[in-house]
């Protein structure tokens, strides 16, 4: 039977990490997968998380199952962090998920049960895994225009026109902040316009938010999510704790539905729980217990927010530094946009050939579409990196 299986196409982010591990070039740099790195290239464990972990080891008495829906105290803390104190939470049905991808998987399954005829619209471009996640649930996926590669801006009018041409009850996935891969978010006024078209068309938005705290700050990065939660009768939310708590491999997230009534919210939550039960039965608890401890303890929470803010500030300074270094070596404002974008990612406007030369000859690993994880850079390599890009850009244009 198994001989009928075909070799799958490599994932463009994950395959890069495997090739990076094999690369022997000294000073090689993995600018692919979206993880924070310190100056030595390591992805550190937050001190606040380590403190919570030590305490957990001392006090944990059982590892018995929690439930398919997960730990309600953890879930309440995450909803508070995401939605703030002003939003009424009784219209939210929520469960714990296996990271952000797990949250999207649960949401997609429940939505497919509710409306299998909906088209799921994703931004062009978007995270590489989005299409497969929704298609696996049975949905037809389509793209909406999002990013103009020519001038690093949002294709806002085309985006609005796409929503206007969609069917009532279609689904639009938006990135809550720090858009992956472009680093370019809508302005508040644009969010307001978009939400008003969602409302008039009867669209259900899914907010995928995996980088709260990496853009402009914890509160600022939640603005669009909170606005959607305040304005929409129905919406879905996929939250990841991987990056902002640095617990990538522990797989911690939340899947939530905002429903019209409390009763519908309870049913939506039960459906998310059934999907979890059918897919993997119970979520892991180790990482979520650490997040719960950090958010429940004012001292640990303050320390965590401080650590996260330091990471955010570092990434912004790397952006600024790279933009200046490229301006210097290219003598043109081609890459100035890097400074104003936010979060871990940006798309460098480089040809596939240049990206390959940077990887093969210099050991600088960017994703094939030009996506760079800014958090993988260091100030020490900046000049060399900018020089290598400038040289390739000159070769390309001469
Ligand atoms: C990324 O976009 O690099 C991260 O979200 C990691 C992943 O799973 O792709």
Mean pLDDT: 96
Overall 3D shape: globular
What is the total tally of β strands? 13
Residues in helix, %: 40-55%
SSE run: HEHHEHEHEEEHEHEHHEEHHHHEHEEH
CATH class of the largest domain: Alpha Beta
Total separate domains: 2
The CATH architecture term of the largest domain is 3-Layer(aba) Sandwich
CATH topology-level fold name of the largest domain: Aspartate Aminotransferase, domain 2
Question: Tell me about the biggest sheet?
Answer: 7 strands, mixed
Uncertain ranges: none
Strand order of the largest sheet: 2-10-9-8-7-3-4
Structural class: alpha/beta
Approximate strand percentage = 5-15%
Gyration radius (Cα, Å) is 21 Å
* Ligand catalogue: (2S)-2-hydroxybutanedioic acid
Beginning-to-end CA distance, first to last residue: 54 Å
**CATH homologous superfamily of the largest domain?**
Type I PLP-dependent aspartate aminotransferase-like (Major domain)
In short:
It contains 15 helices and 13 strands. By secondary structure, it is α/β, with parallel strands linked by helices.
Any descriptors?
15 helices, Aspartate Aminotransferase, domain 2, alpha/beta, 13 strands, single chain, binds (2S)-2-hydroxybutanedioic acid
């Amino acid at each position: 039977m198994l001989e009928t299986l075909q070799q799958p196409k490599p994932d463009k982010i994950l395959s890069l990490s495997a090739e990076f591990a094999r690369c022997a070039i000294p000073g090689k740099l993995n600018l692919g997968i979206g993880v924070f790195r310190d100056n030595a290239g390591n992805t550190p464990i937050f001190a606040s998380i380590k403190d919570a972990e030590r305490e957990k080891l001392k006090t944990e008495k059982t590892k018995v199952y929690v439930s398919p829906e997960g730990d309600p105290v953890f879930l309440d803390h995450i909803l508070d962090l995401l939605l703030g104190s002003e939003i009424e939470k009784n219209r939210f049905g929520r469960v714990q998920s296996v990271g952000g991808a797990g949250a999207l998987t649960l949401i997609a399954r429940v939505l497919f049960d509710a409306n299998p005829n909906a088209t799921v619209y994703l931004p062009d471009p978007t995270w590489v895994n989005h299409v497969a996640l929704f298609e696996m649930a049975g949905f037809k996926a389509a793209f909406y225009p999002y990013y103009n590669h020519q001038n690093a801006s949002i294709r806002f009018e085309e985006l609005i026109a796409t929503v206007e041409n969609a069917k009532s009850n279609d689904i639009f996935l938006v990135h809550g902040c720090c858009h992956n891969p472009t680093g370019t978010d809508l302005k508040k006024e644009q969010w307001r316009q978009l939400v008003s078209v969602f409302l008039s068309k009867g669209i259900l938005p899914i907010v995928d938010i995996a980088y709260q705290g990496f853009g402009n700050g914890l509160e600022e990065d939640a603005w669009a999510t909170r606005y959607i939660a305040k304005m929409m009768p129905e919406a879905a939310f996929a939250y990841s704790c991987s990056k902002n708590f640095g617990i990538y491999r522990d797989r911690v997230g939340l899947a939530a539905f905002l429903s019209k009534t409390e009763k519908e919210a309870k049913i939506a939550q039960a459906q998310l729980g059934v999907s979890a039960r059918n897919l993997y039965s119970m979520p892991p608890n180790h990482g979520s217990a650490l997040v719960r401890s950090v958010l429940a303890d004012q001292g640990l929470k303050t320390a965590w927010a401080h650590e996260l803010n330091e990471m955010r500030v570092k990434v912004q300074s790397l952006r600024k530094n790279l933009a200046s270094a490229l301006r210097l070596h290219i003598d043109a404002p081609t890459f100035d946009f890097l400074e104003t974008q936010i979060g871990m990612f940006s798309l460098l406007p480089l040809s596939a050939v240049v990206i390959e030369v940077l990887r093969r000859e210099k050991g600088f690993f960017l994703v094939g579409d030009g996506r760079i994880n800014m958090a993988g850079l260091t100030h020490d390599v900046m000049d060399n990196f900018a020089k290598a890009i400038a040289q390739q850009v000159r070769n390309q244009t001469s």
